[in-house]
TrEMBL record, chain A:
This is Fe-S cluster assembly protein SufB. PANTHER family: FES CLUSTER ASSEMBLY PROTEIN SUF, UPF0051 PROTEIN ABCI8, CHLOROPLASTIC-RELATED. One of its GO terms (biological process) is iron-sulfur cluster assembly. NCBIfam families: PRK11814.1 (NF008773), sufB (TIGR01980). Residues 122-202 form the SUF system FeS cluster assembly SufBD N-terminal domain. Residues 210-452 form the SUF system FeS cluster assembly SufBD core domain. Belongs to the iron-sulfur cluster assembly SufBD family. InterPro entries: Fe-S_cluster_assembly_SufBD, SUF_FeS_clus_asmbl_SufB, SUF_FeS_clus_asmbl_SufBD_core, SUF_FeS_clus_asmbl_SufBD_sf, SufBD_N. The gene is sufB.
From TrEMBL, chain B:
Residues 2-246 form the ABC transporter domain. Keywords: ATP-binding, Nucleotide-binding. PANTHER family: ABC TRANSPORTER I FAMILY MEMBER 6, CHLOROPLASTIC. SUPFAM superfamilies: P-loop containing nucleoside triphosphate hydrolases (SSF52540). This is Fe-S cluster assembly ATPase SufC. Belongs to the ABC transporter superfamily. Ycf16 family. The gene is sufC. GO terms for molecular function: ATP binding; ATP hydrolysis activity. It holds the Pfam family ABC_tran. CDD domains: ABC_FeS_Assembly (cd03217). Gene3D superfamilies: P-loop containing nucleotide triphosphate hydrolases.
């Protein structure tokens, strides 16, 4: 409760807090995309040939695809030849410990309030930091490796665990899946790799902070998490990006594989630069996130708090293949000013007695547009499949929009799919009631929004919940009055 | 404490208050009575700072400050409390959290530290007894799904927690059964003291039986047409507002 109020106090500062650029020497491949660029990326990363071939295949496929237009978002065409596909902080030498990390980089983390030493000491979170495209620091690795958990950058995984990568990469999101996934498959530079062996409960939250740092560089993160039988892992992804004038493309792919009786919990706080009040700048966030409940009695749970990006296009999904498997999606998407978000989930019920639960809270302010788009499908063998979806929208003011697009496909008479939706508005009466009690309008909005989003926030690990709550309040600054 | 001078107010171009004067001193209880639509809630609203009402003339000073210059939240922090005729539901915000936020905002305004959790709970317990409110209400979203009586009791509970210098109760008695009325009235009586002023808006005598106001004012058609002591309320109860209206038209005829 105390934290909640402290959080609200911070609503007084009003600039985008993380808008700064770190001055680090970067190693940049020229703008544009062709086979040679892909070869350079692969070579710079010292990749084996199978990896290069995989990329080239994806690229060939991408060339034949068209950019999707079905989402409820609008933006000028992206010139894919104007994007930098690879930028890595130059390594001065091999880093043995955090002390050797570029001090500029550490300063950046300090500004973000995520200094590694602090994180390590206070919360026991293992942080694999992705600065631009290459992981520069990994902590707690040793402790994890003792119990057989692999938590490393994707580049390292390709070098050190090629069999696992070969087996699982693209197994959930095929390179042909969609336009942005194909692009990512061709040019991804780095990301995180997590492998939890049979029977192991990962003792700490695994966390990665992504950060875009080179002017105009696209981010193509690739994350792969595998939980073997009876394994458990909770993974946190959080990001903040520096203020930019030009739009930055971000097209990540995240794949989760849950085997028998395993559980993967994936939480995101997304705070890419949203652009200014007039919609100038900001990140285009086109992400493909999908998990498969491969084994019986497995569970995948997505929780996301989306406050950033100029445009968000993102549908973390679960394929419920194993019998009795469970998929969950908890989402808060907040849009302000000129932001556009088209986000939701897909729950694909294939196995028997599979259950899914969707809780989506959309908050729109300013002139923003916020859409929920969700698909629930019960296949013909998905006997007794159950879904419950709850989509609530909260509007601030009357220039913003909230839209709900639920798609339901049931090929099975025993499946029960329930959908509820509400739309409410923060009314003048509510604000006045708060103000009469001494709570100013901005604090009142933060209070109401926090209450509205509570059900989702409760799903987040504690330290993340606090951060996420801050973001909600900060993101709504200037939206009332 | 409160000095209202010649207040004229309108909403959507319609003149509602047509010159109100009222002086309220610390420790006093004033009752404002009057028929529906006479402007009682409007008066309460402009005192609380509701922006849709336009004040076309007059002034209000509160504790020596020009009240009309203050934002609604600052009026509240200075010690003004309005128990709403229709308390507003705020889904997702628990009553406890709401009051705690309000209390700490007020403390911040006065340069005090936020109340720690233990002291806050202690204060809550104490005030809960005072107004006989059930604990279970406090964990629920504020006013959401509360019965009429629960909402009114919750308003008085907030008043107890926030310890205002001036409280305006807008028809806090309406919609209450006799037991609830007694509880609410007892709560208000316990909150009476030498430093606190209370304005009670009502059109029934029954609340005043419990509260025994020092002064009674009758508001008709945007004006205070008669002021007196508590006997005036009894007279009104007996004869209805018509007797005042008749008196008025007589006076105007003369
Ligand atoms: N927000 C408003 N918009 C339009 N008319 C209003 C508004 N508020 C009050 N009025 C009108 O002003 C008059 C006085 O209302 P009110 O102050 O609520 O009376 P009371 O509380 O004495 O019953 C009524 O005619 C009412 O319809
Ligand atoms: Mg009224």
């Amino acid at each position: 409760m105390k934290e909640e109020l402290d959080v609200l106090e911070q609503t007084v500062s009003s600039d985008y807090k993380y808008g700064f650029v770190t001055d680090i020497d970067t190693d940049v491949v020229p703008k544009g995309l062709n086979e040679d660029v892909i070869r350079i990326i692969s070579e710079k990363k010292n990749e084996p040939e199978w990896m290069l071939n995989w990329r080239l295949k994806a690229y060939a496929h991408w060339l034949k695809m068209e950019e999707p237009e079905w989402a409820n978002v609008h933006y000028p065409p992206i010139n894919f030849q104007d994007v930098i596909y690879y930028a890595a902080p130059k390594k001065k030498k091999q880093l043995g410990s955090l002390d050797e990390v570029d001090p500029e980089l550490l300063k950046t983390f300090d500004k973000l309030g995520i200094s590694l030493s602090e994180q390590k000491r206070l919360s026991g979170v293992a942080v694999d930091v992705v600065m631009d495209s290459v992981s520069v620091a990994t902590s707690f690795k040793k402790q994890l490796s003792e119990i057989g958990v692999i938590f490393c950058s994707m580049s390292e995984a390709i070098q050190n665990h090629p069999d696992l990568v070969k087996k699982y990469l693209g197994s959930v999101v095929p390179m042909t899946d969609n336009y942005f996934a194909a692009l990512n498959s061709a040019v991804f530079t780095d990301g995180s790799f997590c492998f939890i062996p049979k029977g192991v409960r990962c003792p700490m939250e695994l966390s990665t902070y992504f950060r875009i740092n080179t002017l105009g560089s696209g981010q193509f993160e690739r994350t792969l998490i595998i939980a073997e039988d009876e394994a458990y892992v909770s993974y946190l992804e959080g990001c903040t990006a520096p203020m930019r004038d030009e739009n930055q493309l971000h097209a990540a792919v995240v794949e989760l594989v849950a085997h028998n009786k395993s559980e993967i919990k994936y939480s995101t706080v997304q705070n890419w630069y949203p652009g200014d009040e007039n919609g100038k700048g900001g990140i285009y966030n086109f992400v493909t996130k999908r998990g498969i409940c491969q084994g019986n009695d497995s569970k995948i749970s997505w929780t996301q708090v989306e406050t950033g990006s100029a445009i968000t296009w993102k549908y973390p999904s679960v394929i419920l293949k194993g019998d009795n498997s469970i998929g969950e999606f908890y989402s808060v998407a907040l849009t302000n000013h000129m932001q556009q978000a088209d986000t939701g989930t897909k729950m694909i019920h294939i196995g028997k007695n599979t259950k899914s639960r969707i809780v989506s809270k959309g908050i729109s302010a300013g002139k923003s547009q916020n859409s929920y788009r969700g698909l629930v499908r019960a296949g013909k063998n998905a006997i007794n499949a159950r879904n419950y979806s709850q989509c609530d929208s909260l509007l601030l003011g009357d220039k913003c929009g909230a839209h709900t697009f639920p798609y339901i496909e049931s090929k099975n008479k025993t499946a029960i799919i329930e959908h509820e939706a509400t739309t409410s508005k923060i009314g003048e009466d509510q604000l006045f009631y708060c103000r009469q009690r001494g709570i100013d309008a901005e604090t009142a909005v933060a209070l109401i929004v926090t209450g509205f989003a509570k059900e989702v926030m409760n799903q987040l690990p504690m330290e993340f919940a606090v951060e996420a709550q801050k973001l909600l309040a900060i993101s709504l600054e200037g939206s009332v009055g | 404490m409160l000095s209202i001078k010649n207040i004229h107010a309108s909403v959507e171009g319609k003149q509602i208050l047509k010159g109100i004067d009222l002086e309220v001193k610390a420790g006093e209880v004033h009752a404002i009575m009057g028929p529906n639509g006479s402007g009682k809630s409007t008066l309460a609203s402009i005192l609380a700072g509701r922006e849709e009402y336009e004040i076309t003339e007059g002034s209000v000073s509160f504790l020596g400050k020009d009240m009309l210059e203050l934002s609604p939240e600052d009026r509240a922090r200075e010690g003004l409390f309005l128990a709403f005729q229709y308390p507003v539901e705020i889904p997702g915000v628990s009553t406890t959290n709401f009051i705690k936020t309000a209390l700490n905002e007020k403390r911040k305004y006065h340069g005090q530290q936020p109340l720690d959790a233990v002291s806050f709970l202690k204060l809550m317990k104490e005030k809960m007894q005072l107004v006989e409110i059930d604990k279970s209400l406090l964990t629920r979203s504020i006013n959401e799904g509360f019965s009429g009586g629960e909402k009114k009791r919750n308003e008085i509970f907030q008043m107890a927690m926030l310890e205002p210098k001036l409280a305006i109760l807008d028809e806090t008695d309406s919609g209450l059964d006799i037991d609830a009325l007694r509880i609410v009235a007892n709560g208000v009586n316990k909150l009476r003291n030498n430093e606190r002023a209370i304005i009670v808006i009502t059109h029934y005598q029954r609340l005043l039986d419990y509260l025994q106001p020092d002064f009674v004012h009758v508001l008709v058609n945007g004006r205070i047409v008669k002021s007196g002591t508590k006997e005036l309320a009894l007279e009104l109860e007996e004869k209805g507002y018509d007797f005042i209206k008749d008196e008025l038209s007589l006076a105007e005829a003369v």
